[in-house]
Write a structure and sequence with these properties.
- By secondary structure, the chain is α/β, with parallel strands linked by helices.
- The chain has a domain of 37 residues.
- The chain is built from 2 helices and 3 strands.
- The radius of gyration is 11 Å and the shape is globular.
């Protein structure tokens, strides 16, 4: 049986908790990071969410729109 991955979008990606959540979700076998949102015009916009969280690129770009 194939295991189902739960998609997760992190809102507040550049915040302290957002960065922790990005690291936890991307290292989990049960979740998949599908989006990362931060405040409008924030400096993290356009960056890879993994880099924002202080890890390797994860292929999800931080945006300021849902």
């Amino acid at each position: 049986m194939t295991e189902h991955l739960t998609p997760v979008i992190i809102v507040g990606a550049r915040g302290r908790m957002g960065r922790v959540l990005i690291r936890e979700v991307t290292s989990s076998d049960h979740y998949i990071l599908t989006g990362a949102v931060d405040r409008s015009g924030g400096p993290g916009r356009g960056m890879d969410a993994g880099r924002v969280a202080g890890t390797l690129d994860v292929g999800v770009t931080v945006t300021d729109e849902l």
